[in-house]
Specification:
By secondary structure, the protein is of the alpha+beta class. The chain contains 30 helices and 23 strands. It has 4 domains: about 210 residues, Cytochrome Bc1 Complex, Chain A, domain 1, CATH 3.30.830.10; about 200 residues, Metalloenzyme, LuxS/M16 peptidase-like (Cytochrome Bc1 Complex, Chain A, domain 1), CATH 3.30.830; about 210 residues, Metalloenzyme, LuxS/M16 peptidase-like (Cytochrome Bc1 Complex, Chain A, domain 1, 2-Layer Sandwich); about 180 residues, Metalloenzyme, LuxS/M16 peptidase-like (Cytochrome Bc1 Complex, Chain A, domain 1), CATH 3.30.830.10. A hairpin with a 5-residue loop joins β1 and β2.
Length: about 950
Amino acid sequence: MSYQGIISRVRQSRIPAIAVTCLFLFAGNLFALPDTRGWIHEKSDLPLHPDLITGTLDNGLRYVILPHQTPRNRASLHLNVQAGSFHESDAQQGLAHFVEHMAFNGSTNFPPGTLIHYFQSIGMSFGGDTNAHTGLGETVYHILLPKADEQGLKKGFQVLADYAHGLIFDENEIEREKGVILAEKRARDSARYRTGQALRNFLLPGIRSNERPPIGKKAVIEKGDRKELLDYYNTWYRPEAMMVILVGDVDPYKAEDLIMKHFSPIIARAPEREIPDLGHFSHEGELFFHHAEPESGDVSIVIAASRMVPPRKDNLESRKESLTLQLGSMLLRHRLSDRLSDPATPYNRAVAMADIQHQSILSTRLVAIAPKDKWEASLSLMEQELRKALTHGFSEEEMDRVRRETLSYLDRRIAGFSTIPSRKIADEIIQAMNTPRVFTSPEDDKALFAGFIEEIQAEDVLEAMKNAWGDDHRLIAITGNTSLDDHTALSRMQSVWEKSTTIPVAAPDMAVAAIFPYLPEPAKAVQPLTSVSIEDLEFSTVQFANHTTLHVKQTDFEADTVRVLISFGPGRAHEPEDWPGLSLAAPALVNLSGTATLDRPDLARALAGKGMSVEFSVAQENFRFSASSKPEDFSELMNLLRHRLLDPAFRTEAWELVRRRAEQEERRMESDIAGTMQHIAPSFFASFDPRFSRPKASEMNEDMRRAAENWLKPAFMDAALEITVVGNVNPELVIGEVGRYFGDLPRSPRKEKTISPLAFNEGAKATYWVDTQIPSAQIRIGFPTMGLEPVEESRGLTLLSRVLSDRIRKEIREKQGLAYSPRSFHQASSVYKDYGGLYIQTGARPDQVAMVHKAIMDVSEKLKREGVSEEELRRARDPLLTGLKDRFRNNSFWLAGVMAGSVEDPRQLDRVRTLESGYLEITAKDLTRLAEKWLKPDRASSITVLPVGEEGL
């Protein structure tokens, strides 16, 4: 189940994401009413993507086919039911989602308990290659076929047709599934979810969607029976409300024939019901809202305007209007984000947003996340920034930045569309059909909008912003872990607001144009000493005299992208003993600091429109810069990385922001069950080794910042570099540019690393309590295993974990209904010799923790005692092998999983050579032997996280 609300945890948006918002206009699952049941392109002056094949069967069911060859020989199939929780009656709240669950529990051609086995038997993984979600106005079923031949399409369409009209709703399965759905409801419950519900009711009062969260009501779920489920199913799963989407490496005409064969027999099984009314609201004046959630780790400050507007049709005029408004949001977002480089800025994150919801609601919002003692200053600053923008508008320099960013996205969309995965394109088509929006081609997008973007003026954007925000009302909300008293909160908010509005605002001082590049250009490219071709893996390794190693592989996997990974220096395994957790805080310090010459906002302005990204991280074995760009910008990317290495910054103001965000995260962890498990479990199973500790915000002082600088900077300046390049770029060009920008850097020889061993915390048991009112718990059990080598055994443990996961799913989810998504997985370290674990993790009801723990141990013991069958091996291995085919055509796999690190561990290359054959050689007897060897209950450790007051294990 998925649901996109009006507000979620704020993240700083990246340029591509901003541009997507600009171009696709109506974001999220914010469906429209009621025009989704026709072809929107027939009512619009916008051109449909020329390769899109659409049709309507005699029964009214529609279909969309897009031939697409990424990934090769695979196809993404979807049944898009244009009905969801919005369509439920008061007595049905939760049944749309319940029906979705029942689709996997018995149908005409797949009796209860057989569908998942069937998926596994044809090489599909449950949850990865097949899944579903329920939203407000849609229920969508997904199948990613391992083979897109005619037989594969027949199998996929048969399953989708069963979803559409063949569900049987077995009473026993209904009762069992109730426990699973209630477990999912518990898993979804959180302070953020509750806050979002309350905020939506404030921003959009009287709108039906606020009253219909897809997860539904507990009482309805508990009482749900076959009659009620059939009523919803037969009413809304009608042919004219359904659509089949196919994107993949297929013959579209054969696929069209198969769609007609499988879906033409579907008929309406119940009288049509009127689609419920959306509702109506009207705001006037300044309205204040306070919602306290002590379990939140922070405070959200929202300034918004929401108004009903005449239904928007998707046409050229409306897209230009929306694009203009989105450009305004980008401009305001940049201003809010750029302020983060000032240590006096009170908030930790901030964004500006605007969208059209349900075709009839225009919503604009500023959202900031701040410490609870900074809400007043944050609210004042946001009010003044908004007023400043609406009063004085934007400069030509600011406009130039967003023009470049948006035009760059248009170009990258054209260059990269052919290698976007089919599933992602299918999701875009589904989103377009349910918005509704014409699915246009990247080429048409550029033809229609590039000239408009180039010519649009700041005055046009200001007018659009003024019209959207209006002057008739403002909505001001403070939510989360506030220190406000409910009785005085609104008056205090009003006082802060009114005081802020009296402060004059002047047009902002424009930043001096940043100059980049600014370091002296290298005189010439340094030639490599040696070059070795690894022919079977199709890449080359080049060695330079200054101890720089380059791996380069040319691929066509991403037409518009080249990816780079620079590895150097020590890593988390060599973290300074006096500063536990430093490796977790250091990356943000580097990423938020820019360079010593240009701070982060200046650097972003200088690089606007380049589509380049650079991010620093600390891996277990080394420091890393991960980067990407368009192929034609590769030389500039190399220059940028050279600047980041030679002119690094570790700014005090950036460190203060890192500290504040860590403080915010700590507060959230104090009342977050799943988050506490995520933070504590790695350290617990690693025997509380300091290298797996998180730094405390209270300890993140200036001394720690200097310690980070002293740890990182010498490696930036002197450590040997391993540079890995993968993508659609000429290897000779890569060798030349790497030689130019890195071949002349003085670097020390690569040093042999001695890593202290890591011990698994065997036979331990721990319970942690969290101060929360949410009735949920988390359990993780770990069996100590081994490191990555010998690889034959670690691969066997990976398959064993999949067998165990399948058994646990059947026992705990399907049979007992105790958990929503229990899973098992194996992690084997390539850095710490002999360190690994086979883990089982699940959520649970607090009063059922002991029962779930026992059930997991019983399943594990039974697997050890009975062994693994040939069928279980096949169902575990075949989906894994299907996934491997995609991995071999994935740039990131070659970048980080094969080539990078091969200087220090050449065995990586042999591991990839034997990856497929190695899994094929594993037998059921091998897995049985591994179960006997490793699934020993006396060595297992467990960690449980519970609400305060609940009894632990």
